[in-house]
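Need the bound structure for NDP, inputs here:
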Amino acid sequence: MKVILVEQPGGPEAMRLVDWPKPAPGPGEALVKIAAAGVNFIDIYHRTGLYKVEPPITLGMEAAGVVEAVGEGVSEVAPGDRVAYAMSRGAYAEYAVVPAWMLVKLPSGMDFNSAAAAMLQGMTAHYLVFSTYPLKQGDACLIHAAAGGVGLLLVQMAKMRGARVFGTVSTDAKAELARQAGADKVIVYTRDDFLEVVRAATNGRGVDVVYDSVGAATWEKSLDCLRPRGMMVSYGNASGAVPAFQPLVLSQKGSLFLTRPSLQHYVASREELLWRAGDVLGWVQEGKLKLRIDRVYKLSEAAEAHRALESRATAGKLLLVPE
Ligand code: NDP
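Answer from helper R.:
Posting the output first, comments after.
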């Protein structure tokens, strides 16, 4: 089978399409023939070595496809089932072996591209607004990179929860997309000072929660956007990892709460996974949650997809499809 491998951490050119033996599922595992794999920023962290994994590095944390075989003791799925999953590495390939408990059956009629586009970023948005800081009617939140893959879904879900949504984006074109997703106030943070805008629009109070996936570039000002006892949810590092800091800063800025969550800990049980995936895929199916698939690449074009994502040229989801 064809698979993308990285021999040593590096730039997009480090990704090579190679022939590899087709894997066989062990006990509790399923072999999935991949129809579409999602591209996520975490794939860039794995490729560059920001998140350490043993080389040769396989990439890709989400896909949709068909179960081809199952190992001993698997009860969750059977050969022929149409499934999707997130948070098991190795989806940039024609086949992947995945723990069977991580597989979710697709609602009937859902296409593979939509399922692959919804799982990882959709469940991330879900846990952020339902569990990490459960938004309630009337809360105000700030969402950075609001026209990104997670961003567009997070804006929609924050609106479902009844929050007032501030969103930041780098361009006017992205601002329009964030507005269409429901953001109440969109700030082009490459031009305008998001802290000033948030302060002015909240009469100096600040927002209840900041969902910050940009990291180093926005960290300091994001803290200043919070009301006393507000929550900083630092869930990504698109501009680089947040530098070391003193917890005392949280006290000085208003007894703030800080968390650095990861999806894996919010879909750690089958029950929680089925709740989040069921909501996300169900809403997509009902048209309540809109996906924006920015571009579909061939598996062999994975490097190009990474270049586009890293250069901030994308808005919404990127997919890889085996030839
Ligand atoms: P996005 O589609 O959001 O792409 C990243 C966006 O970040 C860019 O489009 C850009 O938006 C913004 N950005 C700001 N500064 C930079 C920079 N220097 N370089 C690149 N991008 C920058 O990606 P994803 O939806 O895949 O992921 C979004 C973030 O969420 C990532 O940080 C990812 O790690 C994180 N994440 C975390 C999870 C978790 O559980 N903790 C799970 C899933 C994702 P703009 O042009 O508008 O500035």
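Comments: Residues 40-42, 120-121, 124, 145, 147-151, 169-170, 174, 213-214, 217, 235-239, 261-263, 309-310, 312, 314 surround NDP (CB under 6 Å). The domain at 136-260 is CATH 3.40.50.720 (Rossmann fold).
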